[in-house]
Write a structure and sequence with these properties.
alpha/beta; Transcription Regulator spoIIAA; binds iron/sulfur cluster; 417 residues; 4-stranded mixed sheet
């Protein structure tokens, strides 16, 4: 005891990154490392970056500075999407010892063996076109809800997005592989799995498909709840919606990116659907499952978005029977087609539009929650205790806060809202 090397992680960005950090952590623990909190002293610090976060560079610099102050002799490794996109920029941050790109991050244990503090910063990355092969990942023990990565990368070319450049082409696990992971998770007592991917609806790339995956999982024993993290509207087929409607384990909860309610802007964004298709999907979901929660991603301030375009988005969302919005403010990204579009929307207008939609989201969520007041729904309670209280979510993703009871942790309880 005491001689084990310690490693600490910090994750920026999305659920996929969180599940991959968990996998990196398990890999290093298997190699004899002991995991500690990022705030504590560690021999190795790993920062898993994101390219979607604004200021990824700034955030990264700040974290590295913090590490240098408390542990100047420790190794600092940067990985994730931003590391793939801007390896040289990251390597130039004082105190960074190694940058691991998309293909190399799962070889972290091997690369660490060859790393000594004080050497020149090592960059291990290759062209994203060369990145292939799929690494399944899941987070366990972190939360009651486990994020299971079943797909990675994306073949679409939405004009604002750098993810295909950071994560490479679309590739997936096989259904067989997913089933093996699900069984493992069930044996570990996991109750809820969130199926995660970059372009999840593209699962299987034509050889298998997401519907087949979902119907296979639906027939398995062991896991009580599945959620679909986010799925493109053009890939969310009627049969997937019907499967969820008839399933006891797939929760009535969808997250569907819209990005804009203006067809003109959707065209400029190179999205693969128009607003009419989106409205149809929502209508079918709500007809089959009136109680379903629907989350929507929207981007405001995309180049060329006029006041009229924004008003169209607002009116469309206002009318649409959806539950909550995730509102993103457009920000310029290197090497994207959107940079060539215009006119550019002034930053203060982008922020105003963001605020307007966030208000709309708040109202929609309130309206949704009120519809279920007094009803009893099933809540899966989570582990964390905060001031004597615990949190959980209903099947249709309403957050519940209740006085902490140990026996409720990771259990599904009938709860009157
Ligand atoms: S579907 Fe579009 S926004 Fe989503 S990851 Fe692919 S390119 Fe990016």
């Amino acid at each position: 005891m005491g001689s084990k090397k310690t490693v600490a992680f910090h994750t920026l960005g999305c659920k996929l990154n969180f599940s991959e950090t968990s996998t990196l952590s398990r890999m290093l623990e298997n190699e004899g490392f002991e995991k500690t909190a990022f705030e504590d002293h560690a021999d190795v610090y790993v920062i898993n970056t994101c390219s979607v976060t604004d200021n990824a560079d700034k955030e990264c610099r700040q974290l590295v500075r913090r590490i240098q102050r408390k542990a100047p002799e420790s190794l600092v490794v940067i990985t994730g999407c931003y590391a793939q996109l801007k390896p040289k920029e990251i390597a130039s941050i004082p105190g960074v010892d190694m940058v691991l790109g998309a293909a190399e991050k799962f070889n972290i244990a091997h690369h660490l063996k060859e790393l000594t503090k004080g050497d020149a910063t090592k960059i291990c990355s290759c062209d994203i076109e060369e990145v292939s092969g799929f690494h399944s990942s899941f987070s366990i023990n972190d939360r009651t809800r486990t994020f299971l990565k079943v797909q990675d990368g994306c073949d679409y070319n939405c004009s604002f997005c750098t993810i295909p450049m950071a994560r490479g082409k679309s590739r997936s696990d096989l259904i067989e592989g997913v089933v093996a992971n699900v069984n493992k998770l069930a044996a570990n007592g996991v109750k809820e799995i969130v199926l995660t991917g970059v372009n999840l609806g593209d699962f299987g790339e034509g050889k298998e498909n997401f519907y087949e995956l979902a119907s296979t999982l639906n027939k398995l024993e062991g896991i009580q709840r599945y959620r679909i993290s986010s799925i493109e509207p053009n890939l969310l087929t009627n049969s997937i919606i019907e499967l969820v409607a008839n399933s006891n384990t797939f929760m009535p909860h969808f997250h569907i990116p819209l990005q804009s309610g203006s067809n003109r802007i959707l065209g400029l964004m190179r999205r693969r659907y128009r607003r009419e298709l989106y409205a149809e999907r929502v209508k079918l979901i709500k007809t089959l499952m009136p109680h379903a929660a629907i989350g929507v991603d929207v981007i405001v301030g995309f180049p060329g978005e006029t006041n009229e375009d924004f008003q169209e988005t607002f009116d469309f969302l206002h009318e649409l029977d959806v539950t909550y919005l995730h509102v993103f403010t457009y920000s310029e990204r290197d090497n994207t087609h959107a940079l060539t579009l215009g006119p550019v929307v002034p930053v203060h207008v982008r922020h105003e539009r963001n605020k307007t939609l966030r208000n709309l989201s708040y109202m929609k969520q309130q309206y949704f929650n009120q519809q279920f007041a007094g009803e009893t729904r099933k809540v899966l309670f989570e582990e964390n205790e905060k001031n004597g209280m615990m949190e959980g979510y209903t099947d249709n993703y309403i957050k519940v806060v209740a006085p902490y009871k140990q026996e409720w942790v990771n259990n599904i309880i009938d709860w009157k809202l």
